[in-house]
Amino acid sequence: MSECVFCGIAQGEIEARIVAEASEWVAFRDLQPKAPTHVLVIPRRHVPGLDALSDEDAPFAGRLLAACRRVAETEGLKGGYRVVTNVGDDGGQSVAHLHLHVLGGRRMGWPPG
Question: Which of the following is catalytic: 38, 97, 99, 101?
Answer without folding.
Answer: 99
